[in-house]
């Protein structure tokens, strides 16, 4: 479980188990951008209450990054995590890998609120990291100003 993260921008990384290696690279880049990622393999201890830890972090997260692949679309946890983020009204960043935005938008079972978002191809993920870095810097400057 995460501790001492209250002053940091928290990013939940949602992904299919089949996409773990790619999700770890995304989490590493989030850390390098100055934010704190939540990646289930890294933050949940073996034998811990997996679902409770996911719920706890989703309640703290400032945004959700979801790696959508053709096989991730079939995973119930992906949809549950997206639903929580949508319900909390936190930003949802959709990274597509193995499908185009047109392919995703043509799928009848994908909710409209997800289809209306800016969908990034995984090859364009650096634009997200650049914006994330700017948000972290702005938040740091704001909190530093508040503490003086």
Describe the fold and architecture:
The protein has helices spanning 20-32, 40-43, 50-60, 76-88, 101-105, 112-115, 125-146; strands at 10-14, 36-38, 63-68, 92-96, 119-121. It has 148 residues and is an alpha/beta fold. It has a five-stranded parallel β-sheet with strand order 2-1-3-4-5, sandwiched between helices. The longest helix has 22 residues, at 125-146. Mean pLDDT is 85; it is low at 1-5.
Low-confidence stretches: 1-5
Strand percent estimate: 5-15%
How many H/I helices?
7
Taken together, the total number of domains comes to: 1
Gyration radius (Cα, Å) is 15 Å
| CATH fold descriptor | Rossmann fold
CATH superfamily: Toll/interleukin-1 receptor homology (TIR) domain
Secondary structure: helix percent: 40-55%
SSE-based structural type? alpha/beta
> Strand order of the main beta sheet, please?
2-1-3-4-5
Mean pLDDT: 85
The CATH class designation is Alpha Beta
Largest pleated sheet? 5 strands, parallel
Taken from the alpha-carbon principal axes, the silhouette is globular
Q: Give the CA-CA distance, first to last residue.
A: 31 Å
Shape-level CATH architecture: 3-Layer(aba) Sandwich
Order of helices and strands: EHEHHEHEHHEH
What is the β-strand count?
A: 5
Key attributes of the depicted protein:
148 residues; alpha/beta; Rossmann fold; five-stranded parallel β-sheet; 7 helices; 5 strands; globular; disordered N terminus
Tell me the layout of helices and strands.
Blueprint lengths: L9 E5 L5 H13 L3 E3 L1 H4 L6 H11 L2 E6 L7 H13 L3 E5 L4 H5 L6 H4 L3 E3 L3 H22 L2
Parallel strand pairs: 1-2, 1-3, 3-4, 4-5
